[in-house]
Amino acid sequence: MRKTVIGVMGPGNATERDRYHAYELGQRIATAGWVLLTGGRNVGVMDAASRGAKEAGGLTVGILPTADAQGVSEAVDLAIITGMGSARNNINILSSDVVIACGMSTGTASEAALALNANKPLILLTDASESQQFFTSLSPQSLWLAANPEEAIALVKMVLAQSRQA
Amino acid sequence: MRKTVIGVMGPGNATERDRYHAYELGQRIATAGWVLLTGGRNVGVMDAASRGAKEAGGLTVGILPTADAQGVSEAVDLAIITGMGSARNNINILSSDVVIACGMSTGTASEAALALNANKPLILLTDASESQQFFTSLSPQSLWLAANPEEAIALVKMVLAQSRQA
Amino acid sequence: MRKTVIGVMGPGNATERDRYHAYELGQRIATAGWVLLTGGRNVGVMDAASRGAKEAGGLTVGILPTADAQGVSEAVDLAIITGMGSARNNINILSSDVVIACGMSTGTASEAALALNANKPLILLTDASESQQFFTSLSPQSLWLAANPEEAIALVKMVLAQSRQA
Amino acid sequence: MRKTVIGVMGPGNATERDRYHAYELGQRIATAGWVLLTGGRNVGVMDAASRGAKEAGGLTVGILPTADAQGVSEAVDLAIITGMGSARNNINILSSDVVIACGMSTGTASEAALALNANKPLILLTDASESQQFFTSLSPQSLWLAANPEEAIALVKMVLAQSRQA
Q1: Are the C-beta atoms of residues C87 and C62 closer than 8 Å to each other?
Q2: Is 0.90 topped by the overall pTM?
């Protein structure tokens, strides 16, 4: 039966704080019994989240932009190799039941926007007020702001409970 | 020889002001001898820009998200049918020499972010301060703000002249 | 108004005979007033067909697998840059009103199969009996065999006339 | 650490014999400790292979052409939702360490051709002589013919052993 998939999107070129948050998100996602989905590369938020999930015994999926598995994170169990560059960002979104954007970059912004475009629940975990204000201006209904990984995971649980009721 | 392609991205569900801007952008793009590229649908900014370009005798390309040509704008000469949904947004960006975002929506935001991600020159034509501040925070180097279509086209000319020198 | 698009698919690593056929197909497509669509690269059937069409004053579109325009044929007017590798083969098919496979290779075989999969009219221009027998075994209804470019173009005209009646 | 992924491609509209073969392939793939990858839909070879793998306690991945999870096989653990139609066939191939084509159809033919195009080991499990002769004519080096599921799995083991030595 189909497993619940939580996507964690974030910069390849991430701050230490974003990587720390991503690691903790990965741990908490695995502990909750969900599958972690990321962009799969061996850098930044993708790598840190995958390492956190593996440390907690979870299953990790990486949707790679490249046409082979070079550059995949060692903490990815299952590499989906798209060869599509950033067009794969839409697959990251459609394949996730809930999307968490951890930090911000041009790639992460495209994923956050595609999530709102697809009516996919989106949780922003970032201090940047420009990001908070911009995505709130686009689509307040399916967007939540989280102050830390614990709060983000509580929001995921709430969203999943609501969607099971619907 | 390869033609210069200017992409105009904007909401399907557009304001009257955005549609008016898009129509004028289309006219000016055609008059300059460039090809207009849009998302191809028969609504909003895509349709208005294509109509403007046709009225001025230009060539119009539409990159459709659907798997057939239903819903294509009547003003599109050449329909590229992707069947890829919003993953086609990345093709819109990669195929444009310069990208103009006219108005803002979740889809347009993904295209603006993908443009900055691909180091593609991006011109924002919107009054929304949240949009201006957010994209400026992401990548000030390849981003320009325009107050109206005339200014946007002047920026396109400047960017094309710079890239020919480079 | 939307132009009629004829796709010519064929090997990058083509025989002289395939390239000669492709050049003549390009000429005849342009002369008929149709747009030529190819995979856009500066080799083999793609390049030869595009050169033929340009020589006859036609409009040429190339759907590139790469993420930039390096490697585009000089005879391509309009480069659609997908950055998707061979996943772009499906766009070649969906965007063509009729598909001609000129010669055969692994890439061309995928395009011929995707054409039949999408119920797109497919004309095979190849002497190889294995190809003729295989595609005939898959889907005889929307498949035609041509002995030379002249016959292929006559079949395109017949198919377009039928689809306008339908 | 990255798991070994074996792709089983085959018709949605499959014969009873193809479905029986697919079920047995799924069982043997799971028993060998590999992940099964299919096109994910709840029909034909995709569904039968996934059921076989689940019955044997394996992990199953489905790469769906649709933009949501409607139509996914109940035996798929992990649904990758592409929204890309048949362009997703290339992801099926790139993500598999070895590809088995079980039966033949237009979609399966495109996947077999894309496998050879990407130099991915391809095992054909079909009685159809047209298929055997056609793919052999395209690329004999990375192609093997199997008479039954047991032989197909023995070929997978040989190919994996060779690629580990290389």
Answers
A1: no
A2: yes
